Amino acid sequence: MQGAPLIRKNHSEYPATKDRAAYAHDRLVVIYVDSDTKQARAFYVDGESHVINYTATVSAEGNTITFLSDPLPSSPRYRLTYVKTRAEVLTISFETAPPDKPDEFAKYVTATAGWVADPK
């Protein structure tokens, strides 16, 4: 990042179904290095008023980045992990922990993402 924040913006649109109306979901994540602690940090905000502050750590081999939310007394705690499992493939897991047990995470969702290198 060379000292500059990394910004990710997402906009997803979901069509109506027989059970719910169509809706959109917007998200913003900013990853930066805290100037005081020199620790990688991130914050997440979305259109549903969620705000999550994370500490980010990268594994020694550089294949895993983990975002761990700051513990708050009355809020769930979150852990978001990206693992590069093969060239151009990531596994993603999002876990939650209850406020009274902030280190007891349970998987909420897992996914795999891949991409194709630009042929240019």
Short summary of the structure?
By secondary structure, this protein is mainly β. It has strands spanning 6-14, 23-33, 40-46, 51-58, 64-69, 77-86, 89-97, 106-114.
- Principal-axis shape equals globular
Approximately how much beta-strand content do the residues carry? over 45%
Q: Compute the number of structural domains.
A: 1
State the separation between the terminal residues, measured CA to CA: 24 Å
Q: Give a count of the beta strands, DSSP E runs of length 2 or more.
A: 8
Structure classification: mainly beta
Tell me about the biggest sheet? 8 strands, antiparallel
The low-confidence runs, each spanning 5 or more residues with pLDDT under 50, are: none
Order of helices and strands: EEEEEEEE
Q: Kindly state the percentage of residues in helix.
A: under 10%
Strand order of the largest sheet: 1-2-3-4-5-6-7-8
Mean pLDDT: 91
CA radius of gyration is 16 Å
Quaternary structure classification: single chain
| Count of alpha/pi helices | 0
Keywords:
120 residues, eight-stranded antiparallel sheet, 0% helix
What does this structure look like?
This protein is mainly β. It has one domain. It is built from no helices and eight strands. Strands 1-2-3-4-5-6-7-8 form an eight-stranded antiparallel beta sheet, with no helix packed on it. A hairpin with a 7-residue loop joins strand 5 and strand 6. It is globular. The chain starts with 5 loop residues before the first strand and ends in a 6-residue tail after the last strand.
List the SSEs and their pairings:
Elements: E1 6-14, E2 23-33, E3 40-46, E4 51-58, E5 64-69, E6 77-86, E7 89-97, E8 106-114
Antiparallel strand pairs: 1-2, 2-3, 3-4, 4-5, 5-6, 6-7, 7-8
